[in-house]
Amino acid sequence: MQDLLTEEHRAWIGKAEPTRTVEISRRDIVKYAVATEQCQKKYLEGDEAPPMFIFNLFSTVREIEALRPDGLPRGSGQGPRLPLRRVMAGGTEIHQYQPIRPGDRLSGTQRITDMYEKQGSTGPLIFTVRTLAITNESGEPVLDEVQTAIAR
Amino acid sequence: MTELMGIKVGDRLPEREHTATNVSLFLYNAAVWNAHRIHYDESYTTEVEHHPGIVIDGPLQGDWMSQCALNWMEGRSELLSFNYSNRRAAYLGEVLTAGGTVTDIDMASSVVGVELFVKNEAGEVISPGGAKLKMLQP
Question: In this complex, which of A32, A70, A90 lies closest to B86 when CB atoms are compared?
């Protein structure tokens, strides 16, 4: 199999991005709940965030000129530049320790924990595994996420 | 047979159909701040990324799957963990169904394991997943 990942790519494994803090707003929870067709009142009224609300919550909001023609962010802060450019979400595993509520100030630290290649039915694939550890202002764990992105 | 709060291994969770629209995908991608054009720009999606149509976000399907577990025992359980994988893309126009089955019950900890899925109209599981729920005894 073609070796697409270089030492430079693999050097990203284990690197943590700077911890980011976000303030959870009721309005953002309500928007997410409506867009995902939630049924439960606590989500639709924004009293609590559905667990998958954390998807992309700690990613950097980039300026429009910092986005690639495909709409995804380019450059540093998201990981190395990969030789395969079409990226799709692969899967997620989350462990929730306490609910997320409006007014929470949450800190998230993301790091790349693995990068590997596989041969898919339509060509090579690169898997990038990122972990995200979310804590509250008291430093208590709120949620851990392991997310896999697939480039093809 | 092991039974916890009336739950038995093999019990099926209520299934729910989801039909994404251009509008719902726009709202979802705005909510999660995702500008990837495969979710709203049809000519780009088909001509440049060579998909047959607008792609339904994998994490949105993941959310639908998590709702299947969350809504099943609403108010009587809390979600401990959840996972899913996107195995196959789904496209705008497809009717997807989220569902699941109870796979294990730990009586000592009151934790129930469920296997979850999102299926397409052909009945193929395009996203498998699972969850652990802590049952809250009345």
Answer: A90
Nearest CA in chain A to B81: A95
**B81/A38 touch (CB, cutoff 8 Å), yes or no:** no
Please tell me if residue B74 touches chain A, with a CB cutoff of 8 Å.
Answer: yes
Other Cβ atoms less than 10 A from the Cβ of A81: the count is 11
Residues of B in contact with A26 (CB under 8 A): none
Rounded Cα gap, residues B11 and B13, in angstroms: 7
Contact B44 A35 (CB under 8 A): no
Domain span including residue A18: 7-151
* Structural domain count, chain A: 1
CATH class of B3-20+57-135: alpha beta
Tens of pLDDT, residues B117-128: 999 999 999 999
Does residue A30 form part of some domain? yes
pLDDT digit string (tens) for chain A, length 152 residues: 567 888 888 888 988 889 999 999 999 999 999 999 999 999 999 999 999 999 999 988 999 999 999 998 876 455 677 777 777 778 899 999 999 999 999 999 999 999 999 988 888 999 999 999 999 999 999 999 999 988 88
Three-state SS for chain B is CCEECCEECCCEEEEEEEECCHHHHHHHHHHCCCCCHHHCCHHHHHHCCCCCCCECCHHHHHHHHHHHHHHHCCCCEEEEEEEEECCCCCECCCEEEEEEEEEEEECCCCEEEEEEEEECCCCCEEEEEEEEEEECCC
In a domain? residue A108: yes
Q: Assess if residue A1 is contained within a domain.
A: no
Domain residue spans in chain B? 3-20+57-135
Q: Does B35 touch chain A (CB under 8 A)?
A: yes
**Is B79 in contact with A34 (Cβ distance < 8 A)?**
no
